[in-house]
Amino acid sequence: MIGIPGVMLYFLCNHKKGLKTMKNNDVKEYYSGVVSGRYNSDYEKKRWSENSILKADFEMTRRSIKHALLNHSFDSCLEVGPGPGTWTKVLYDNNPKATYQLIDISEAMKDEFLKSFDKKTENITYDLSDFIVYNFTKEYDFFFSSRALEYFDNKQKFVDKVFLALSDGGCGCIISKNPMYSASKKEIRDFHAGQISATELKKILTSQGFKSVTCRPAIIRLPIISRWFGGLSNFLHMISMKLPLQIFPKRIIESYIITFKK
Ligand SMILES: C[S@@+](CC[C@H](N)C(=O)[O-])C[C@H]1O[C@@H](n2cnc3c(N)ncnc32)[C@H](O)[C@@H]1O
């Protein structure tokens, strides 16, 4: 269903400056507009393979996730903001025996998931809810979230909830956009004003009690040349992705991956 309020929010966020960061509930409407509008109800394909930059972004993110998974085995996984399940497939292929609880606020995204996720599995449950108010019935030993944190109006509440959801010894992995990358752009969309730096997020995670908090690049975009040579950024990522985030110039890091342990 095309959400008219969602379409309106989409246009407001793309064409007007001066808006505040969205509240969690607005995100739901926003995505119903953005999925049927800009992405023409084919979110995953258009988001990750429409051009060479996005294809390179996809390869880099997948590589980063696979690397993060190397050191973590798990029986139960909680994923927040899976959208169409792009990275759920990577998690699942890596560990098909685990159970997966997916939570997303957007019905339009769940519809995309049902269309694109070809695996008929009983061990994946997709619930529609704002993660912040979701009632868990169990603890999970792995937490995953990609490119969703920036839409939460309160990062501390998000981290509190992750801490509650994870069992002792459980691990987590969050991918989020780097605000310093956007800062180099002339127009910063207010919708993304919710971006948090890896340093800030690390502080919140550490003060919450998480251990072994490690930040690495998830997507590298070399200025100007990325437009023509997405493969070069991808190559740079391949050879440098295991290095700590601090050594990279902040403006070439489009997004980072942060891993932690409870
Ligand atoms: C940019 S999409 C990311 C989709 C996918 N994880 C990826 O990396 O391509 C952000 C997703 O987070 C979801 N989301 C945003 N706020 C949320 C909230 N408060 N609770 C649950 N899901 C939320 C959105 O509905 C959307 O599906």
List keywords for this structure.
10 helices; alpha/beta; disordered N terminus; binds S-adenosylmethionine; 7-stranded mixed beta sheet; Rossmann fold; 262 residues
SSE diagram, text form:
Layout: H1 4-15, H2 24-36, H3 43-49, H4 52-70, E1 76-80, H5 86-94, E2 99-104, H6 107-116, E3 124-128, E4 140-146, H7 155-165, E5 166-177, H8 179-182, H9 198-208, E6 211-220, H10 230-240, E7 253-261
Parallel strand pairs: 1-2, 1-4, 2-3, 4-5
Antiparallel strand pairs: 5-7, 6-7
Helix pairs in contact: 1-2, 4-5, 4-10, 7-9
The chain binds S-adenosylmethionine.
How many helices? The count is 10
**Percentage of β-strand residues:** 15-25%
The low-confidence runs, each spanning 5 or more residues with pLDDT under 50, are 1-20
Report how far apart the termini are: 40 Å
Give the topology string: H per helix, E per strand: HHHHEHEHEEHEHHEHE
| Class by alpha and beta content | alpha/beta
Q: How does the major sheet shape up?
A: 7 strands, mixed
Shape descriptor: globular
Within the CATH hierarchy, at the fold level, what is the topology? Rossmann fold
Number of strands: 7
Mean pLDDT: 86
Write structural notes for this entry.
The chain is an alpha/beta fold. The protein has a single domain, classed as 3-Layer(aba) Sandwich (Rossmann fold). 41% of the residues lie in helices and 21% in strands. It contains ten helices and seven strands. The protein has helices at 4-15, 24-36, 43-49, 52-70, 86-94, 107-116, 155-165, 179-182, 198-208, 230-240, and strands at residues 76-80, 99-104, 124-128, 140-146, 166-177, 211-220, 253-261. Strands 3-2-1-4-5-7-6 form a seven-stranded mixed sheet, with helices on both faces. Strand 4 (140-146), helix 7 (155-165) and strand 5 (166-177) form a beta-alpha-beta unit. Helix 1 crosses helix 2 (24-36). The protein is globular, with a radius of gyration of 17 Å. The termini are far apart.
